[in-house]
Amino acid sequence: MENKKRQHYLDLVKVLAIINLCALHYSWAGDVDFAADISFSVAFRRFVYGFYACTVPLFVMVNGALLLN
């Protein structure tokens, strides 16, 4: 049987993706009102929400990489 090396950076990315997914589901970014006038706080919340939403595909890809190796 072949000895496979563990890729620790994938574990770290998976942990960060799990934390961001929890933040997305618990809505730590607050209420994101896309119809509100643009202010710094609204723009910041939109950016954070978009960052959290990008972690969903990241989580799926990391799990796939861990399963296929």
Report on the architecture of this protein.
It is a single chain. The protein is an all-alpha fold. The chain has helices at residues 8-25, 40-68. Helix 1 packs across helix 2 (40-68). The model has no long low-confidence stretch (mean pLDDT 79).
Short description:
This protein is mainly alpha-helical. It contains two helices and no strands.
Our Rg estimate from Cα atoms comes to: 16 Å
| Proportion of helical residues | 55-70%
Ranges where pLDDT stays below 50 over 5 or more residues in a row are: none
Mean pLDDT: 79
Shape: rod-shaped
SS strand fraction? under 5%
Q: Count every helix, treating DSSP H or I runs of 4 or more residues as helices.
A: 2
How many beta-strand segments?
A: 0
Estimated structural class: mainly alpha
Largest sheet geometry: none
* SSE pattern, N- to C-terminal: HH
- Cα distance, first to last residue? 14 Å
